[in-house]
């Protein structure tokens, strides 16, 4: 039989891999949009002890299907002091188990059904009006695409069995000795490090095994290498992160390396145990099944998923008693916490215990909103490529967005029905200020993105510098503590141009700047103009309610209420 390598192999394999990885991304994004904030709150409450940390890490990672998101979540909570280092380490252990739940789902024999399910969920996504329904449909679409992509890869890999050159090469990758086992493990680790996804590597391995290209023990060996490869990805990802992020990554690295080192000597014994266990999951994975006249091995993905789960559970049980040792060793990574970059995704002042006390909860909201504003101002440092600025504008914006949602949710909870009108009015004012602050942060993010992704000529850069200085000066109206340098000349002599003048200067650049530069500056000026309008709205909102007076009366009312309640002839102070 003639094989068209492009049509029969490359198209389905590359297309299937792309669809598979897109499905993983869709599923993770959909589930995280639905539940990531709830999961953060649950984790903060649940991970009080190492045992609870393992259970919480397993459950949350199993739901959101992203160990990366889980790591970011844990690091943020550790930085904020919500979770201590010891239970945080246990959460990472649980996250290792949680990621294997996805591998078990991938092994389900849904096959071609993935395409029709993806179509159904896509239609729901396109026509849904509710954001919640859209996110559910996105997660379902990703789930379905995983199976369809895996099915495509399996079909595209099957013809390789008829190519003698390929089979001769793959025969050298048979895990029939410890030397060949190590070879398989390191190759899989390298592939995982390159594509940054252990799930994708395991998906490829499952496809090769199901197509009969790899025998089932070799496929399992490759899955072990995928677990090792994730440690390389974690190490690379932690290079530019804070010390606590590095500690989290090092915990992941050390768990998996120790686990692989212990498991490799026991590999062939564990294969006998796995072969026995497969009797309860369908039989011998080495026995082919004829489908449409072709041999296939549907139990190989099941064996791979089962072994991957067993490996991580075994690893966690083995290392759990040594969490204290890990804590002592990891706490020595970096001699001080002062150099850590602050994590703005976790509130610092929003204490749930204060939510029932209006007079204390409102100042907490004001402090957190001011902190959100400071985080937004950092985008100017990013625009200027300051060394103290966050390295990733997108990641910093996501952190501020999460903080914004937490502020709004906390403030809305203060709005009780029995509150006086003036207190409800103050809460409404705080919600509007938080909303304007979020919009201002988004505009500042756009400013940083536009400046960072364009290389300006000298005359164009001069306009950009003046525009950023203008925004600096405007920010001082609502952020007096903002750390920009004071002008060396008297304030009355500082005359920053209006946006219209800067726009005219941009248009007059002519041959001194390219069209792309001028277009970027005009868009930048638009973002700055919107930012200045929002700064004025924030300032006006702060003055719309006499907040100090309302808080003073609330405090006085609280102090008077116990005395009033002591006298049976007096009723509680009525709402004004």
TrEMBL record:
Compositional bias (Basic and acidic residues): 556-566
Pfam families the UniProt entry points to: Na_Pi_cotrans
Transmembrane stretches, start-end: 12-31, 43-64, 70-89, 101-124, 136-157, 249-268, 304-326
Renumbered residue ranges of the record's region Disordered: 553-576
Its membrane topology: Multi-pass membrane protein
Keyword line: Cell membrane, Membrane, Transmembrane, Transmembrane helix
Localisation per UniProt entry: Cell membrane
Main location: membrane
InterPro entries: Na/Pi_transpt
NCBIfam families linked to this entry: Na_Pi_symport (NF037997)
PANTHER family from the UniProt entry: SODIUM-DEPENDENT PHOSPHATE TRANSPORT PROTEIN 2B, SOLUTE CARRIER FAMILY 34 SODIUM PHOSPHATE , MEMBER 2-RELATED
Record protein name field: Na/Pi cotransporter family protein
Source organism per UniProt: Mesorhizobium ventifaucium
Species classification: Bacteria, Pseudomonadati, Pseudomonadota, Alphaproteobacteria, Hyphomicrobiales
């Amino acid at each position: 039989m003639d094989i068209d390598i492009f049509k029969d192999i490359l198209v389905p394999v590359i297309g299937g891999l792309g669809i598979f990885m897109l499905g993983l991304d869709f599923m993770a994004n959909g589930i995280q949009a639905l539940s990531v904030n709830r999961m953060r709150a649950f984790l903060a409450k649940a991970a009080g002890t190492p045992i609870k940390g393992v259970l919480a890490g397993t459950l949350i990672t199993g739901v959101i299907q992203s160990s990366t998101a889980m790591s970011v979540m844990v690091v943020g909570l550790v930085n904020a002091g919500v979770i201590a280092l010891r239970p945080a380490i246990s959460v990472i252990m649980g996250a290792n188990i949680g990621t294997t739940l996805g591998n078990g789902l991938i092994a389900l024999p849904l096959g071609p059904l993935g395409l029709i399910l993806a179509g159904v969920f896509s239609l729901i996504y396109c026509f849904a009006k509710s954001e919640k329904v859209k996110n559910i449909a996105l997660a379902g679409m990703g789930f379905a695409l995983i199976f369809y992509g895996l099915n495509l890869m399996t079909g595209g890999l099957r013809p390789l069995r008829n190519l003698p050159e390929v089979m001769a090469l793959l025969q050298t990758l048979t895990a029939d000795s410890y030397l060949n086992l190590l070879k398989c493990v390191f190759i899989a680790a390298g592939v995982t490090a390159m594509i940054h996804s252990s799930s994708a590597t395991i998906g490829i391995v499952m496809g090769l095994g199901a197509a009969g290209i790899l025998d089932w023990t070799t496929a399992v060996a490759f899955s072990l290498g995928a677990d090792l490869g994730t440690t390389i990805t974690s190490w690379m990802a932690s290079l530019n992160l804070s010390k606590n992020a590095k500690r989290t990554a090092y915990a992941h690295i050390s768990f998996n390396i120790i686990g692989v080192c212990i498991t490799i000597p026991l590999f062939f014994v564990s294969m006998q145990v796995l072969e026995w266990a497969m009797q309860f999951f369908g039989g011998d994975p080495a026995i082919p099944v004829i489908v449409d006249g072709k041999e296939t091995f549907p139990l190989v993905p099941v064996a791979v998923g089962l072994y991957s789960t067993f490996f991580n559970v075994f690893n966690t049980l083995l290392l759990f008693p040594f969490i204290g040792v890990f804590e002592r060793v990891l706490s020595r990574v970096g001699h001080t916490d002062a150099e850590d970059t602050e994590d703005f995704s976790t509130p610092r002042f929003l204490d749930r215990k204060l939510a029932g006390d209006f007079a204390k909860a409102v100042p907490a909201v004001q402090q957190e909103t001011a902190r959100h504003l400071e985080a937004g101002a950092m985008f100017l440092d990013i625009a200027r490529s300051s060394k103290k600025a966050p390295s990733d504008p997108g990641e910093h914006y996501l952190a501020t967005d999460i903080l914004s949602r937490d502020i709004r949710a906390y403030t809305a909870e203060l709005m009780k029905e029995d509150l006086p009108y003036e207190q409800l009015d103050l809460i409404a004012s705080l919600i509007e200020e938080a909303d304007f602050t979020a919009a201002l942060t988004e505009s500042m993010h756009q400013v940083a993105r536009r400046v960072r992704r364009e290389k300006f000529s000298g005359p164009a850069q001069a306009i950009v510098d003046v525009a950023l200085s203008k925004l600096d000066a405007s920010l001082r109206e609502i952020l007096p503590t903002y750390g920009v340098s004071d002008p060396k000349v008297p304030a009355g002599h500082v005359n920053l141009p209006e946006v219209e003048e800067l726009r005219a200067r941009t248009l007059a650049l002519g041959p001194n700047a390219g069209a792309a530069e001028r277009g970027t500056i005009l868009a930048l000026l638009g973002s700055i103009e919107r930012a200045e309008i929002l700064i004025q709205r924030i300032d006006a909102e702060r003055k719309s309610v006499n907040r100090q007076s309302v808080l003073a009366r609330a405090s006085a009312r609280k102090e008077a209420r116990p005395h009033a309640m002591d006298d049976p002839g007096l009723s509680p102070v009525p709402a004004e």
